[in-house]
Amino acid sequence: MSVEPTHEDADVPALVPELSVRDLDASLEFWCCLIGFTIRYTRREEGFAYLALGRAHVMLDTLSIERSWLTGSPEPPLGRGINLEIWVPDLEVVLGRLASSDWPLFLEPEEVWYRADDVLLGVRQFLVQDPDGYLLRLQTDLGRRPA
Q1: Which of 21, 27, 29 is nearest to 64 (CA)?
Q2: Beta strand pairing call for 119-129 and 107-116
Q3: What is the pLDDT of residues 126-145, one digit of tens each?
């Protein structure tokens, strides 16, 4: 049985996004079965789940159950204007699960080197949308080199 994490836990980040979803089961299928997150805990009666993949944490909250903190109309795709960068241990495994489910990619896998002052940070990444349209940028580390 999982227990609700506290902020004293070393693996709990200081920022955890809470995403409004239309169908919690469909979202859990995507986030857990395809991407690889695990459920830390749920409140099914509220349509809520707290998920983690390593140090990447996210909360899913079903629209119209209990209370919601919407600042506008929830028209799909949800989460416009944001992408969630998530480090995964094995990009190919996630790509294989998505391909097996015929889940479309938003951006095919690519290798990119981003400048961070005098260093280049290398990643292999791709982008995919969840059932509600949230854009996930999944990546693995390729290392560093001088800029």
Answers
A1: 21
A2: antiparallel
A3: 999 999 999 999 999 999 99
